[in-house]
Write a structure and sequence with these properties.
The protein is of the alpha+beta class. The chain has 4 helices and 12 strands, in the order βαββαββββααβββββ.
Length: 254
Amino acid sequence: MCPRVTGESWPLQTKWLGKTQIHLESVSSTNDYLAELKDAPEGTVVTAQMQTAGKGRQGHRWESGANAGLYLSFLLSAGRFSKDPGALTLLLGLLTSLALSPVLGKTIELKWPNDLIVEGKKLGGILCERSGDRIICGIGINLKQEKRQGAPYAISMEDVGVILSPQETATRMLETMEPALENFSNMGFLVFLPQYMDRCVTLGKQVLLISHGNETAANAVAVDRSGGLICEIGGERTVVTSGEVSIRGYLGYV
């Protein structure tokens, strides 16, 4: 069954990001749906009121209840965004924080590499996937309160007293992202690194690096210009990438 398309395009003050929009009632995953649109132009945005198989990093499931959040994906050219490709997820987290923190009245912090954190809990997440010569960027934001079985560390915008529609949320994000993405394509992640590190709650903490079921204690020291996490293990420094490990706080989620 083809997903049902709902509603008209949202007005955006952008040049290319979101100029093509597809708004769906329900879909397995907005990332997967967009990946199937082989002729979609760069900047195409797909949203859904509900995802039946939303996903996070390393195959984790992303809870995507009906009308409870913003479930959005957009398309970038891999060639255009070839500088520091490993840092793209981090950049989108930073830009989402910059777009939405003023509405919350508090800073949305960042858990390396892809989680958005409010009051020590997960507000949302980022998932970037390569599909041939394209990059599919998926963003999920919890907007409304709902029962979240198995998700004790989740929080929503509504939980902190802020009511935003998916359209309002996406508009703020996409209009913030377009000029920053253009700067990123020209100059890479280094110009954004100080802002990212200022908001990264992972840094300065003892964390567990989780890979293939094995856990290694480390101290998170910094983030490098390519988006790698610089850790200290046994007195020696090493750089880990998001494709290699997951991160968990030594005493909890953050």
